[in-house]
Specification:
This protein is α+β, with helices and mostly antiparallel strands. It folds into 2 domains: about 5-90; about 110-350, BirA Bifunctional Protein, domain 2 (2-Layer Sandwich), CATH 3.30.930. Helix content is about 40%, strand content about 20%. The protein has 11 helices and 11 strands. It has helices at about 5-20, 20-35, 40-45, 50-90, 110-125, 135-140, 180-190, 225-240, 300-305, 320-330, 345-350; strands at about 125-130, 135, 160-165, 170-175, 190-200, 210-220, 250-255, 260-270, 275-280, 285-300, 315-320. Strands 1, 5, 6, 7, 8, 9, 10 and 11 form an 8-stranded mixed beta sheet that branches. A hairpin with a 2-residue loop joins strand 7 and strand 8. Helix 1 runs parallel beside helix 4, helix 2 (about 20-35) packs antiparallel against helix 4 and helix 5 (about 110-125) packs across helix 10. The structure holds 3,4-dihydroxyphenylalanine (DAH). The site of 3,4-dihydroxyphenylalanine (DAH) has 11 residues, from strand 10 and strand 11. 3,4-dihydroxyphenylalanine (DAH) binds near residues 178, 259, 294 and 317.
C-alpha cells in the first residue's frame, strides 16, 4: 500500500462529507468497496505478497478499508436520519383545524322500522320473504280468494299494466304484500313462518294516503294453529316494537276475503298534550281505540289455492302499514313527507346507519 492509497482514502472521506444523497454514497461505496473497487483490488494484492511483507501490509490495508467502510455506513445513517426528520417536519398535524363535518346520510324511518320488525320477528323464528312489486293478477287477487267478479277488488284502486298476466287477467302493481303469502306457500310448502315487508301501490293520494306505501305481511302455517297464537304473536310483536308492556289489544270481527274468521286489531291509547300515546285500555276515561292492522285465520280456500291440504294445515296471517307504525312510534304527522326526499326532514327523522336495531340494545336505540 502506498501514500497514493492513503491520499485516495482521504479524498474518499472528504467527498463523503460533502455528498447529500444516498445514491451518491452508494456510488462511492461501489467505487471503493465494490467487486471492482480500488480497495477490493488492494486487498487482493495481499495474496501475492511474501509472508513478511503481508504481515506489515495486511493491518494497514485492513485499517484503511475499515475507515472508509465505517465512514460510508455513518454517512448513510446520517442521511436516513435527516430524511426522516424532514418527513416528520412536513407531515405534522395541525390540531387547530376545525373537525370534519359529520356524515350527512341517514337511514329513512321506513327502513329503520322494517329493520326493527325483522329483528323482532327473527327472534320469534320468522324468516323474511319477498315477492315482486309487478305482480300477476292471480297472486294479488285470485289466489287470495278474490276471483274476477269479487267486489273487494274494487276497494284496491289498482294500477294495471296493459300486459296480460301468465296466469290470466292483467299484470299490475301489487296492492298489498299478501301475494307473498301465496308465493311463499307455493315455493316452500308447510310449515312456514314468514314476514314480508315491501312497497305496495294504490291509486290514492291525500294527507294519509300516497300512491306508494309500505306494508309488512305475516304468515304462519302449521298444524293446530288457532286464534290464540295470532293474538299472542301480535301482542308480543307490538310490545317489543313500542318498547312497553302497556299494550292492550282489542280484536274486532271484520271481513277479508283471504281470512276466515277475520279480525281487525285495535290498540288502546290515551291523549297526552293533544297527541295519542299508546297504552291502557281504549275503554278507559279519556282513552280511545286506534285501528292498527288486519288479520285472521287463513281461509281454507287460500291454502288450497297455494297447493296445500287445508285439513292438514292451518294458520294465521296479518298485514300492517309500515309507514303508519313509523308515524306512531316516531311522531311524524304527515305521511307525504316520507316520500318528499327533503334533506331537512331526513336529518330530523333519520337514523344513524351505525345503529343497528337489536333486541338486546333496545329496538329503537338511537332514536
Ligand atoms: N292485505 C290487506 C290490505 O292490504 C291487509 C291484510 C288483512 C293482510 C288481513 C292480511 C290479513 O294478511 O290477514 O288491506
Amino acid at each position: 500500500m502506498s501514500t497514493q492509497h492513503e491520499q485516495q482514502a482521504e479524498a474518499t472521506l472528504t467527498r463523503l462529507e460533502t455528498v447529500q444523497s444516498a445514491t451518491e454514497v452508494e456510488a462511492i461505496r461501489v467505487e471503493a468497496l465494490g467487486k471492482a473497487g480500488w480497495i477490493s483490488a488492494l486487498m487482493k494484492t495481499l495474496g501475492g505478497m511474501s509472508p513478511d511483507e503481508r504481515q506489515v501490509q495486511a493491518p494497514r490495508i485492513q485499517a484503511l478499508r475499515a475507515r472508509v467502510a465505517d465512514a460510508i455506513e455513518a454517512k448513510k445513517a446520517a442521511l436516513e436520519a435527516a430524511e426522516l426528520e424532514a418527513r416528520l417536519a412536513s407531515e405534522t398535524l395541525d390540531l387547530t383545524l376545525p373537525a370534519p363535518t359529520t356524515p350527512k346520510g341517514s337511514v329513512h324511518p321506513v327502513s329503520q322500522v322494517m329493520d326493527e320488525l325483522a329483528e323482532i320477528f327473527a327472534d320469534l323464528g320468522f324468516a323474511v320473504a319477498t315477492g315482486p312489486e309487478i305482480e300477476d293478477d292471480w297472486y294479488n287477487f285470485t289466489a287470495l280468494n278474490m276471483p274476477e267478479s269479487h267486489p273487494a277488488r274494487a276497494m284496491h284502486d289498482t294500477f294495471y299494466f296493459p300486459d296480460t298476466a301468465p296466469k290470466g287477467g292483467r299484470m299490475l302493481l301489487r296492492t298489498h304484500t299478501s301475494p307473498v303469502q301465496i308465493r311463499s306457500m307455493v315455493e316452500q310448502g308447510a310449515p312456514i313462518r314468514i314476514i314480508a315487508p315491501g312497497r305496495v301501490y294504490r291509486s290514492d293520494s291525500d294527507a294519509t294516503h300516497t300512491p306508494m306505501f309500505h306494508q309488512i305481511e305475516g304468515l304462519v302455517i302449521d298444524r293446530d294453529i288457532h286464534l290464540g297464537h295470532l293474538k299472542w304473536t301480535l301482542e308480543t310483536f307490538l310490545k317489543a316494537f313500542f318498547e312497553t308492556d302497556d299494550i292492550v289489544l282489542r280484536l274486532r270481527p271484520s271481513y277479508f276475503p283471504f281470512t276466515e274468521p277475520s279480525v281487525e286489531v285495535d290498540v288502546g291509547f290515551r291523549w297526552d298534550n293533544g297527541k295519542r300515546v299508546l297504552g291502557g285500555s281504549g275503554d278507559a276515561e279519556g282513552h280511545g281505540w286506534m285501528e292498527l292492522l288486519g288479520s285472521g285465520m287463513v281461509n281454507r280456500r287460500v291454502i288450497e289455492y297455494a297447493g296445500l291440504d287445508p285439513d292438514e294445515w292451518q294458520g294465521f296471517a296479518f298485514g300492517v302499514g309500515v309507514d303508519r307504525l313509523a308515524m306512531l312510534k316516531y311522531g311524524m304527522d304527515d305521511l307525504r313527507a316520507f316520500f318528499d326526499g327533503d334533506g331537512r326532514w331526513l336529518a330530523h327523522y333519520g337514523f344513524s346507519g351505525l345503529d343497528q336495531p337489536t333486541l338486546s340494545a333496545g329496538i329503537g336505540a338511537g332514536a
